Amino acid sequence: MSFLTSLRIGASGLSAQRTRVDLATSNLANADTTRGPDGQPYRRLDPILEAVPFDQALGAAAPAGTAAVRIAGIAADPEPGRRIHSPSHPDADADGFVTLPNVDPIHEVVNLMSASRSYEANATAIETLKGMAQRALDIAR
């Protein structure tokens, strides 16, 4: 596998994990948002990750099975939100119930930690690759 192929794979991982972090923080920020632009409670968002074979993009330059990752889309979680009785809330229905977003803060913090650790692992892999390339250049001198 070439140096640039490895860098592209690592960069795709960094990009995917950054998107996961962005969505987890958005979900946490909107955990109490009872009314969005459409008038409905906020819906939790999840990224859809997809493996992309590098041999399609690079021809024979990449070994078989080498894959990068990309965000295929972002999906709203279809689970209904939790309903609480709060007749004085401005978004309460006729029965006095308010539907809260379907965001579980604990789940989002775990997603955030997982994405953060995965980002760190990809960054470490890229740093290791850069160090190997630098050593190869030093040997060539």
TrEMBL record:
NCBIfam families: FlgC. It is found in: Bacterial flagellum basal body. The basal body constitutes a major portion of the flagellar organelle and consists of four rings (L,P,S, and M) mounted on a central rod. The rod consists of about 26 subunits of FlgG in the distal portion, and FlgB, FlgC and FlgF are thought to build up the proximal portion of the rod with about 6 subunits each. Residues 7-35 form the Flagellar basal body rod protein N-terminal domain. Keywords: Bacterial flagellum, Cell projection, Cilium, Flagellum. Residues 95-138 form the Flagellar basal-body/hook protein C-terminal domain. This is Flagellar basal-body rod protein FlgC. It comes from the Bacteria. Belongs to the flagella basal body rod proteins family. GO terms for cellular component: bacterial-type flagellum basal body, rod. It comes from Vulgatibacter incomptus. The lineage of its organism: Bacteria, Pseudomonadati, Myxococcota, Myxococcia, Myxococcales. GO terms for biological process: bacterial-type flagellum-dependent swarming motility.
